[in-house]
Amino acid sequence: MMLYSILYFVDKAFNIYSFMLIGYILMSWVPAAQNSTIGRILEKACEPYLGIFRKFIPPLGMIDISPIVAIFVLNIIKNGLFIVIQYIYNMLG
Known about the structure:
mainly alpha
């Protein structure tokens, strides 16, 4: 039962961060939204992670595809973390 609670918490944390990334990306279309309190909070939370991908993935014209790659990598990290947590749980239990 403890394993499922841990996996549930990790899943929800990653989902919340994914939605924060999507919200931040959508806010980039509305400059006034970026200057709001929520926009600044999302910028502080999302920009360090997105900045990693923006260094390596140039925009295609006016379209920045680095957030798509960032969300994809975030899901890979979440799935990898699930595997590690289950492995550790099975070793201890």
